[in-house]
User: Fold allantoinase from Juglans regia.
Amino acid sequence: MEYMLLWRMLPLLTLGASFLFLFYFQNYSSKQLPHKDCSLLPYQRYWIASKRIVTPQGVISGAVEIKEGKIVSIVKEEDRHWNSKEGHVVDYGEAVVMPGLIDVHAHLDDPGRADWEGFPSGTKAAAAGGITTLVDMPLNNFPSTVSQETLKLKIEAAEERIYVDVGFWGGLVPENAFNSSALEGLLNAGALGLKSFMCPSGINDFPMTNISHIKEGLSVLAKYRRPLLVHAELQQDSESHLGIKEGSDDPRLYSTYLKTRPPSWEEAAIKELVTVTKDTRNGGPAEGAHLHIVHLSDSSSSLDLIKEAKGGGDSITVETCPHYLAFSAEEIRDGDTRFKCSPPIRDSANKEKLWEALLEGHIDVLSSDHSPTLPELKLLDDGNFLKAWGGISSLQFILPVTWSYGQKYGVTLEQLALWWSERPAKFAGLELKGAIAVGNHADIAIWEPEVEFDLNDGYTVYLKHPSISAYMGSKLSGRTLATFVRGNLVYKKEEHAPAACGVPILAR
Ligand SMILES: NC(=O)NC(NC(N)=O)C(=O)[O-]
Ligand SMILES: [Zn+2]
Ligand SMILES: [Zn+2]
Assistant:
């Protein structure tokens, strides 16, 4: 009897199921397909033409065909038939068409301290600077991103509030380091890798790790083939930082701050790190894991240790930031705490050696380490370097800064693409990003290297607190004309697309 009833109900059940399917599918696809407010260009299929397109095979004159967010063909000028092909052509003339920048180290402070930066302002600034993907750091937001649950808060906070794509690093802290299921939960939830500090981070709910925590972290990451990023400064109790005398050393002098964090701190941290990166070698117990040293400042002994580890087959990379390449300690004016960061900006000889290492390929990638705060916490009036918040605000300017300060060293467009797109994409595991190549996301920055501008009050800065940026007041060259994220024109000459259509990037 019951059996008969089931048979009679079957058509009804099938109908119900198909409605459910249709409903789900429509919802799903409406989320996936960009709506018209995502882009300032009303085409799904079009060409971007220019005399200077930066591809992994070199700079070409020609056009890039984009269809539904992806690059579907790249045609050289001499093969002129793209002209006759269907589709709208946006001709940028002499402007440079480059892969969008990928910044693997940015603190957007959202949720919890969105008044320091926040997803909307941070990603608008990114788009205005030619950045198409950011990887957000797990600290300075509150709570810190150290668990599956807190990563979920990040993803929720990003929803419909990001103008470029954003991935997330999770935090490796003493609380989760020996708890592999907690770490796996965080990695399964989509963290692209983990980040830890070997010195106090300045954030209470993000305590520092020691080398045993780091070794444990690497062993879990090995299974996922994802990286561990480390802030490598290890406090040395000896001479230096205790050497400054309260009262006699003026806290408004940059040199006073410099003494508190000598290069020996970086060297000591890296010395410990390379004892565990041996495990990442082929056949080693943590093969598959990777260690990445963030924001290297010391270009002497610290760098030598990294080179040696690389030479031995350790899976290790290192980044530096535009501020270490642009500024030197001698130029920082008394009380100008906009320049305070850790590790500190060192002397000009150190800077020259950093450039050399970058040009020779010993430094792998560049990142902003955009780490803003409230202007009050920068103590600009006081100018006390010892008490001010450490962190440089730079996100919108990283391309013109690298380009402008790189002129002296003959930096090429291909090198910019390597340091800011190709290698960061590979390092963060972003398979469809980082190069203008067929099949990749159409993440593209259009900019004019020769156009100079003054970063003064008349310049439109999208960062929440422009006044704390160390670059305000400088003259730079390289203006962003337009930025495309997965084919959406998200930024064009001081205008953003009405809707925030960046997506969270989650590792699988
Ligand atoms: N809590 C921070 O954002 N710290 C940052 N501060 C800097 N770099 O001065 C960093 O990345 O270490
Ligand atoms: Zn750091
Ligand atoms: Zn940082």
